[in-house]
Specification:
Layout (H helix, E strand, L loop, with lengths): L23 H26 L3 H29 L4 H19 L1 H7 L3 H24 L4 H21 L7 H19 L11 H31 L5 H22 L11 H32 L7 H24 L6 H15 L6 H24 L2
Helix pairs in contact: 1-2, 1-3, 1-8, 1-10, 2-3, 2-5, 2-10, 3-5, 5-6, 6-7, 8-9, 8-10, 9-10, 9-11, 9-13, 10-11, 11-12, 12-13
Length: 386
């Protein structure tokens, strides 16, 4: 048993380290971040049910970017530099505190376009990462340039996030897009420093992304359960809500199965592919959380508490499910598989997008998702010899 110290040298961990698994601190980090995910999905549910579609989707995607990007940056950093000393733990806890501040500001962002609390929480998380990268720069001479590029890039972008709060409302959306591009560019520039890229661990990264996917899907189950229970409080609509609950479970089970059907670590074999894979998970995480919001919208519609048509309620589920399947297809399936299974993902996704035009869209979506699972279990496994 090793003894942890207050401060140790932050040396890079080996990319081929054996038995590299998620730590209790990383799991705690994920569980706290899912609080912010749940807070972002809840007002999306209400905005769609109240027919504020454009506002709800735009606000959700903006808030979710802050959650996802802060989570992703820590995950890749920890894969390369997790020292588990006291300073590292305390710095990570500061990031968790920032995530909770962000979560507390979600309602104000949706209801009043007030992004002060969200920006404050986000900047807290990101400045904590600056401190982590400065430690890495001090103790990893070979990649000092890489670490300093990260620290400088993150710090400069955070300054502009704060400046954005003082600018007119008409500038906010354009500035948001510009700053998102700047955030995404920081790793691209930093990892190409002369010292070389950071030593992320492919299996560890794949596990971390998988664990967060599981937690988000678990939040979908939890939010749907709450919505169905609330709908049943009046003692009516038992048949409709039972159908939604069963269909929702089948959808979530199918999304889990398809995501984990194949191991992803062997896809992270070079920097370019790893970045595309990591960035592409914005679509997976955001759409997975939105499925829970969509199922809540369907419950509201079935119980007469939504101001939308059945078609809109159907798309509240069909659209995020289709986006999830397409992202899994692009990131996990196309690099691995050839033949009918590759074509099945986009075909099923298109059929799911058509379900709101007919009766029982959530139920048909569930049937199509289960059919895709069955196809991967039969034809897909025959092709791969599994």
């Amino acid at each position: 048993m090793t003894t942890r110290t207050f401060l140790t040298a932050m040396r890079p961990r080996a990319a081929d380290e054996s038995h590299r698994v998620a730590t209790p601190l990383e799991l705690f980090f994920d569980l706290c971040f899912v609080v912010a995910v749940a807070q972002a999905a809840l007002p999306l549910h209400h905005d769609i049910a109240e027919h504020h579609l454009a506002h709800g989707v735009r606000s959700y995607l903006m808030v979710f970017f802050a959650i996802w990007w802060a989570w992703m940056n820590f995950t890749w950093f920890a894969s390369a530099y997790d020292t588990d000393d006291d300073v590292y733990r305390l710095t990570t806890l500061v990031q968790i505190a920032g995530a909770l501040v962000l979560a507390a500001g979600v309602e104000a962002a949706f209801d009043h376009a007030d992004y002060r609390a969200i920006t404050a929480g986000y900047v807290i998380m990101r400045l904590a990462m600056v401190g982590q990268w400065l430690r890495a720069a001090r103790n990893d001479p070979q990649r000092r340039g890489t670490a300093l590029r990260y620290a400088a890039g993150i710090a400069v972008v955070q300054l502009f996030w704060l400046v954005r709060l003082a600018l007119p409302d008409s500038w906010q959306l354009v500035l948001f897009v510009v700053l998102v591009v700047a955030e995404l560019a920081v790793p691209v520039v930093a990892e190409r420093a002369p010292g070389g890229p950071t030593t992320y661990h492919p299996r560890h990264i794949a596990e971390r992304y998988g664990l967060f996917t599981i937690i988000v899907l678990g939040e979908v189950v939890a939010s749907t359960t709450v919505a169905v229970r609330t709908g049943l409080s009046g003692g009516e609509h038992l048949t409709e809500l039972a159908g939604v609950a069963i269909a929702g479970l089948l959808i979530v089970f199918s999304l889990w199965w398809l995501y984990f059907d194949r191991s992803a670590h062997d896809l992270l074999d070079n920097l370019r592919r790893s970045m595309l894979w990591g960035y592409g998970h914005y679509g997976i995480f955001a759409s997975a959380a939105a499925v829970g919001a969509g199922l809540g919208v369907v419950v509201d519609y079935d119980t007469g508490h939504a101001e939308i048509s059945g078609t809109v309620a159907g798309y509240a589920v069909a659209l995020p499910v289709a986006v999830f399947l397409l992202c899994v297809w692009l990131l996990h399936v196309r690099p691995h598989v050839s033949g009918p299974v590759v074509s099945a993902y986009p075909v099923i996704s298109i059929l799911i997008l058509l379900t709101p035009l007919g009766p029982a869209p959530v139920h048909v979506t569930a049937v199509l998702a289960v059919a895709l699972v069955a196809l991967t279990m039969t034809v897909g496994r025959k092709q791969s010899g599994r």
